[in-house]
Each structure stands twice: as C-alpha cells, then as structure tokens.
Amino acid sequence: MSAAENEDQLRAKGYDKTPDFILQVPVAVEGHIIHWIESKASFGDECSHHAYLHDQFWSYWNRFGPGLVIYWYGFIQELDCNRERGILLKACFPTNIVTLCHSIA
C-alpha cells in the first residue's frame, strides 16, 4: 500500500473534488495533523485564496480532515489564519514533518 493516493487514483474511486494527495497515514506539520496536501502553482492572494477556500479547501476539510496547501509562489501571510481550524498554508514543502511510526506485531 502506498503512503498517499494522488488525484487520479481518488477520482477513479469516485471522488469528484479531490486534493492533490491524501495521506494514508497522517503526518504532523508544525504541530498540526495533516491528512491531505493541495499544491497551487500560483501566488495566494486574498481573492484567489478565498475562492479556493470556498470551492475546494473546506470541501476537502469536510471530507478528509485537516490539510496543507502549498502556494508555489508564496501567499499573503495574513491568509494563513485557519491553522487552528485545520487548513495550513506554506510556500514550500515543509521540512519539519513528523511521521507516525508503527510496527507490525
């Protein structure tokens, strides 16, 4: 089993709105649990970010739990205000990921 399912795999299972990746085992980023990752090849300005929140991110949160959005070209820092509600914003892939280790008994 892979550690994450990508958008194509999720659509094949019948999901209509999907993040880029859903993690099979959640990770923690800066103390927040992450179940999905969405990558945007754009700058996160107020107008586009609020549209994404409404059209995509809250749907992902409702279906899959908390997640991470990566804006490749940065974002307005004040938009990163939903961390406690479960949507984190980053400008690059985080390097401080905490993974869950489990063994098979």
Brief overview:
The protein has 105 residues and is of the alpha/beta class.
Topology:
Elements: E1 4-6, H1 7-12, E2 21-29, E3 32-40, H2 46-64, E4 67-71, E5 87-90, E6 97-99
What does this molecule look like?
With 105 residues, this protein is α/β, with parallel strands linked by helices. It has a domain at 33-104. Helices cover 24% and strands 31% of the residues. The chain is built from two helices and six strands, in the order E-H-E-E-H-E-E-E. Strands 1, 2, 3, 4, 5 and 6 form a six-stranded mixed beta sheet that branches. Strand 3 (32-40), helix 2 and strand 4 (67-71) form a beta-alpha-beta unit. The longest helix has 19 residues, at 46-64. The chain is globular, with a radius of gyration of 14 Å. The mean pLDDT is 89.
* Stretches with pLDDT under 50, minimum 5 residues: none
**SS content category:** alpha/beta
Oligomeric nature of the chains: single chain
Compute the gyration radius: what is it? Answer: 14 Å
Along the chain, the helix and strand elements come as EHEEHEEE
Task: Give the integer mean of the pLDDT values.
Answer: 89
Q: For the report, how would you describe the main beta sheet?
A: 6 strands, mixed
Q: How far apart lie the N and C ends?
A: 18 Å
Helix content percent band:
10-25%
The percentage of residues in β strands lies in 25-35%
Number of strands: 6
Large-scale geometry: globular
Query: Helix segment count?
Result: 2
Subcellular location: Cytoplasm; Nucleus
Keywords: Cytoplasm, Nucleus
Protein name: CDAN1-interacting nuclease 1
Main location: cytoplasm
